[in-house]
Amino acid sequence: MRTQVGIVGAGPAGLTLAHLLHVVGIESVILEHRSRDYIEHRVRAGVLEHAIAELLVDAGAGDRLRREGIVHHGIELQFAGERHRISLSELADGRTIVIYGQTEVVKDLVALRLDTGLPLLFEVSDVSVDALESERPVVRYRHDGEAQVLECDVIAGCDGFHGICRPSIPTSVLREFSREYDFGWLGILAAVAPSNDELVYAHHERGFALLSLRSPELSRLYIQCRPDEDLDGWPDERVWEELQIRLGLDGWTLAEGRVLEKGVTGMRSYVAEPMRHGRLFLAGDAAHIVPPTGAKGLNLALHDVQVLADALGAWYRTGSQALLDAYSAECLRRVWRAEHFSWWMTSMLHRADADGDFGLRLQLSQLRYVTTSHAAATSLAENYVGLERV
Ligand code: FAD
Ligand code: PHB
Questions:
Q1: Would you say the pTM of this structure is higher than 0.85?
Q2: Ligand nearest to C-alpha 159
């Protein structure tokens, strides 16, 4: 089989890239090793930056997003028993965030792709990439028991952090930067109306907690835990109890409901440079990971593929490689801004035993500053909704 762009991975990055390419008449084949049902129900991100929601709408992939996405103008920071609002739209030139689950983004994009009749293969196995430094890179894989070879002009490695594309780049050309955190998040999805109109990021001496949502009937909640936390020790009652303590305020209670999903996510910061090797372009989590506190991962993934689709469009139209050559540096500027912001939000809000009481006092001082200084609040707000220029 032959195509113009071989896309490994049908997460948000791969699916959005395929759609953006289709809009400008560029062919692609998407290869995904999981099933359709699996990728459509993997609960992950829920916050879209203003410009990323617009990207999906402008590309014709945002009909349901426009109808069902919930626009938020602010977030709340809770510490020392008080809640403080950060007015995102007032501080960031009217820009807002849109609450719309990653599962819904994926469902919308899969449906669009299948409607076009263009190739999106699920449950492929033994995927590998080869001849990356030639003009005819290939993806090898098995599908329905048959070994296949897909010849491409370029390959997009959109296969997430544990994919095969990044490890196919020789270690001599790849530089890796990373930081581990000694905590993770235990997250639940619950069938209960969100107890607050806006997200609440809570600093608490027992550890961080986050109140988020997916819809008027679905709450999404997280508590800081150990990275290897055993879910067996966390029956639903204990999760609610801990959420009540960490999010609780005088005169406000958290409404509880049936737990529909529960999971633990580890946290890391990671960047691989460059995001390109020969005819292989990495995008999204395949190239970089942020801790979820800044709500940046999905947004960065979609930004990468927007840059890549523009660069590929220019190349096919004009023959100029200039934008493809600029791809890695262009993406990395935004990636590093998001890395810093996510690390900063994480450090400000999570309990870190190694930093002791000194660290705790610094966090409280920083939270007080961010919620009282216009300059500091503006910095948080413009990063949170997504900077226009980086
Ligand atoms: P992925 O979603 O990981 O997709 C990669 C795809 O490639 C997968 O479908 C995988 O099955 C497939 N694949 C892997 N290996 C192969 C292979 N060998 N062959 C073929 N296919 C392969 N981000 C935000 O912006 N906002 C948030 O609020 C937010 N909250 C989060 C909360 C949690 C609990 C978690 C875990 C993450 C959160 N993120 C958030 C991060 C966000 O979910 C990711 O950054 C996003 O999924 C990245 O998309 P992607 O397409 O690059 O990678
Ligand atoms: C979510 O709703 O899943 C969510 C929201 C904000 C974050 C991370 C995750 O910072």
A1: yes
A2: 1
Distance CA 285, CA 272 (A): 10
Digit-coded pLDDT (tens) for 257-276: 999 999 999 999 999 999 99
Nearest to 371, CA basis, from 212, 206, 200, 243: 200
Cβ 47 under 6 angstroms from ligand 2:
yes
Q: What percent of the chain has pLDDT over 90?
A: 100
pLDDT at res. 368? 98
Nearest CA to ligand 1 atom 33: 44
Our answer to whether residue 72 is catalytic in this structure is yes
* Cβ pair 6, 27 in contact under 8 A: no
Is residue 158 within 8 Å of 7, Cβ to Cβ? yes
pLDDT digits (tens, 9 = 90+) for 182-196: 999 999 999 999 999
Q: Any catalytic annotation for residue 384?
A: yes
Q: Which amino acid is at 137?
A: P
DSSP bridge pairs for 219: 190, 213
Ligand 1 geometric centre to CA of 146 (Å): 27
